[in-house]
Every structure is written in structure tokens, then in C-alpha cells.
Structures
1.
Amino acid sequence: MTTVAAQQRLIKPHGGHLVDRLDERPSNVESLETVTLTSREVSDLDMLASGALSPLEGFMGRDDYDRVLDELRLENGLAWALPVCLAVEAAPQGDRVALADESGRLLATLDVGEVYSYDKEREAERCFRTTETEHPGVARLMAQRPLYLSGRVTVFDRVPPAFPELAMDPAETRAAFAERGWKRVVGFQTRNPIHRAHEYLTKVALETVDGLLIHPLVGETKSDDVPAATRVECYRVLVENYYPADRVIVSAFPAAMRYAGPREAIWHAICRKNYGCSHFIVGRDHAGVGSYYGTYDAQLIFDEFEPHELDIEPMFFEHSFWCKVCGSMASAKTCPHSGDDHVFLSGTKVREMLGNGELPPVEFSRPEVAEVLIEAYRT
Ligand SMILES: [Zn+2]
């Protein structure tokens, strides 16, 4: 089969085609008024450029924004879950502006669409289901500039990826899937080190499809999450030792974490569809933080869409554990035994053991992964 034919077997990008907003640096860019982006906006910009946010070609206008907040859909009716907006202090003068990161590096131009005011409380309530500023997503929203600037972007310079060896745009993951002859591919989102429980559910999912994309989020997260470099090393040793190389790709997902729970689960699924995944793993409390969302909210929200609207198929998972009686990994769905028979360690207990240089039980964590974490705690 030719590569083109193999690519055509993959799921279509959201909206039908993969957006590409990369182009040459325009000669007059230095003379344009410059808008400085926050790190989250830079990450959104890069995802707009690569097509990871297809069908979006730029930062959202008011009609898209309002309908996403109220109805989980873009103005044209296509499913969408979170605002992708650029906050500014004041309306720009011209009809085109340059976009820069916080160091002043020019990255893109934006053709000015609308400048509109927005209600932070409303956006917080809709997206995060709370207006409490202890929520990291709400805190960031409340600190934002007061107006949104919409418009199509053209990116001519990209911020170097944090992990160049793991950087793959949607066109590249799609090509890699096609090259391996995969049609059905399951995406796994994570921002934590992978222990046996995650290994188990990725493998259960992989049993039913052709390939697995381990797609850790390496964009901005809360400061108390495990550092991305440590997590990436955990994935590397785990995959090297416990997964067949021809069935798994590890690549970085460049999004910034929003902690929007259910809505972010939808948004993450749509992004992975753009990367070529036909299936997407959704665990309990996906993209949650604290106790702002119910345990199953990130799974239940998928019921608000007809299956064809998302196209990518969610695969829902329970917490899993090693059961001594079953003699295998299991979950409440598959094991009838009591908690006393399960190997369970709280997050606090695991951190305490690793901090003391102790390996957790092999039923909980692969020793290669635990060693990486112990080393990270030591430094
Ligand atoms: Zn059991």
C-alpha cells in the first residue's frame, strides 16, 4: 500500500482537513505592532500552526467563543470544548499585528478579526465549573488581560520544543502511523509517571487496536506536578522494557494544562483525532485538579455528543490494581475480591517511599520506572 493510501485509512482530522498555518517570515514584520503572548498562548499558537487544533486557523472570535461556552460547539456546529483565545490590554491600531513570546521573539502574524470583552466569571463557571481562584485554571483566567483579540494566524518561527526527540506534529504522527500500517490507533494522555495501572490500561486498549500513541503533556503544568523531564525518562524506560517497539510511539503533546476536567477531556480527544488517533483513553478524573469534578464527569460528558460528532472513540477506564488472588492486574469491573487482596498505595505513600530511596512493590511500579523517580527525588 502506498503511504498516501495508508494515510487515507486513518481517521479524518476534525472538520475534515488538517490545518497548516506555517509560512515564510514576512519582510515587514518588524514594523508591525507587537502583541506579547503568555506561555499558554504560545503553546496554543504552535498547536494552531501545526493543525493540532484543526479546524481552528487562529484565535477565536466572539461567535465561536460564546457557542463553545454555552453549547460545546463552534459557531458552525462542530463539536469543541474550550476557548482558544488571545487576551490583550487594548485593541491594536492596524489590521495586522506581530505575535511574540515573553522574551520578545517574533513568532507569527495575526490578521485582526474582532476585539471583544468577555466575562471572566462566566468563562470560569462554564469551563472549570467554579470561580474559586484556588483552581489553577481560574487563577490564570482571572489574571488575564481584559479583551480578546481574534484572527487567523500565520506562524513563521516556532519556539523550540522542550523535547526535540519527542516532537511530532499531527502530519508526522499520521505519517508514522501510516508507515507502520496502523489504521486504528489509541491515544493515551498523561501528565504523570506511568505506573503499572497506566501500563495495564494502555495494553488493554492496545489489544483491540493496531497501535498506541503515548502522548504525554509536556506543556506548562502546575509547579507541583512531576517535572516533564522526569516523566519523559519514565516513559522511555517503560516502553523500552515492556512494550513491543513496533506497536508504540511515544511523542510529546505540546498543550498547556488547563485543568478543565470534563471539557478538557473532550478537547484532548479532538486534538488526538487531529494527530490521527481513532480511539482515546479517558480515565477517572481526566484533567482534573483537587475535587472540582466528579470522578466520572470526564467520561459522562462524552454523552453530550452524538458519536459521529467526535468520531474519535473514547475508551473509559476504571482505576486498576494488582490483585493477589486473581494474580493479575484488574479493576473493580473485573475482580470480585476485596481491597485486602489488592496492592494499593496512596500517592502520598508512593512519594514517601521514593523519597526514601525505597522501591514500591513490583506489582505497583516497574523497578526501572521507580529508579528514575528515586533518582529525581535525590537531586
Ligand atoms: Zn481479584
Note: The chain has a mean pLDDT of 94.
2.
Amino acid sequence: MCAGWLAGAACVHAGDVATIKWPKSLELFQGGLSEIHVSGANLIDVGGRMGTTPIVFYPSGPSSFAAIIGADVEAKPGLSKLLLTATDRAGAQRERVIPFRIKAKAFRKESFNVPPSFDQMSEETLEAIRREQAAFARAFAYSVPERLWEAPFVRPVPQEASASSFGFRRIINGTPRAPHTGTDLSAPMGTEVVAANHGRVVLVGNFFFAGGSIVIDHGGGLFTVYFHLSEFKVEEDAMVEAGELIALSGSSGRVTGPHLHWGARLGSARIDPLELLTKISVKSESAAGSRSAVKQMEK
Ligand SMILES: [Zn+2]
């Protein structure tokens, strides 16, 4: 084995990195979410990227790290890769390329009609839509690097969705439109809407399509969004906790009736928010740490 302290140092290295457990491969449907794990003796850090998007890992146990990976609802099906880097206590780094397949999902198509006034855009309306797009782009442009959320995520309204309406391809007044990038939860007017997890409120506003809207930054590139609200209970920059009242539901914006549109975004990927409820099992050893990060930011 290792003879002498000098040789020993190198030997310990080789032993450590050999024990790293990487994900073998990853498959995700369009709009899907998956948790990946990297573990090994003496690991102190794991990082990675998917294309140019950084993957934010967090400690999930002794010498183990986890991250969530999402595929955009319109991601092109096919094979790509994740590049992961693990660093051990001695500073040695190992890289691993993980094959990553995006699978096409058969999203339902739905057709419906809205009053023509919604479709014939005056210059004033077009200007309102540009403001809406710019406001959301600003909200999503920055996410605090540290993870603020803790498993589990909570449903923002009590009503169960019978099925996700995420990803539906919509045909409005006979014309194909952008896919539905959230899921609609039934919520009678005035239902209490709670934060799906801890985070910072980065947008509160009223918009043409989304109506009364809130965006929460959960850190590490993860956001949740809440549309068609009738009343706000928080202001921009507020720190909220999972389950905290943020708004009342409504029917504002371009809707056919009262409901809560709930959306989620990870990096630039628009993902199905219901997957946050079902696909994350993280038992974080730093749960208290993440809560104290929230407290620190409040100061
Ligand atoms: Zn919706």
C-alpha cells in the first residue's frame, strides 16, 4: 500500500476519489425534475453545469451532496450531458461527464376561446405586455446563490390538482400559442395562497396576462410563481417561510375563471411545479443552516 508519509499523501488521494459515487446517467421528461446525488469519503464540495447553466449542489449528509436538475418544457428531446466536479478535503478534483437524456412528453392539446378584446391588442395593451415580460425577466435574472428552501415543498392551496395542466399546448381562438408553463390549481375566489417554501419575494405586481402575481426566489436558481391573485399579503423583498400566507387567489389577468396558476423555474428551465412536491426527498443536514440564512438576510 502506501509507504512513507510523502507517498502516503498521494495514496490517500487516489483512495478517496476512487470511492466517489456519481449518478450513472439521467433521464428527464420535458418539464421534469430530478434529484441527483454525489457522495464519497472526504468530499467537501461538488459543482457542475448543464451547458452553460451552473448546477447548485448542497450538502445532503456526511460527505454527500445533492442537486436538482430540470428540463425546460420546450427542451429539445435528445442526448446531452452534465459535467460534474467533486473536490475532496485534500483539494484533489475529479470530473465526471454524466449522460443526460431529455425525453419528449405527450402534452395534451387544449382549445379555448377568449373574448376578442384579449386578442386584438391595442398599442396600449402591447406596451403593457412588454412591461410584463420585462418585469418577469428582471425577477428571474438573479437568484441568491445559497439554497433557502428545505424539503418538503408544500402545495400553495389546499385543493389537489386532479392532473397537471403543465405543458398543455394551447390553441386560443383557433391559433396555437406558447405552452402552459404552470399548473392550474382549482381555488375559489379568496382562497389563501401560501409560499411553497422559504425564500425571498422578488416580484409583486399586476399584469395583463398573469394578473396579480408573486414570484419567490428560493435560492440556487429556483423560483416559484403565483398568478391571478386578488390580494397580496406580502411586499417585494419580504423573506417568507414555507406555508406562510402570501396572497388570496382570484381571477385577475387573462383567465376564464378563478384558480391559482402555480409555476416553477430552475435556472432557465420552466418546470412542472407538482414535481417539487413529489421528486425531492432531500434530508438536509444543514436545514437549520438554511433557515438561519433566511434570518440573516432579513437583517
Ligand atoms: Zn395557468
Note: The mean pLDDT is 87.
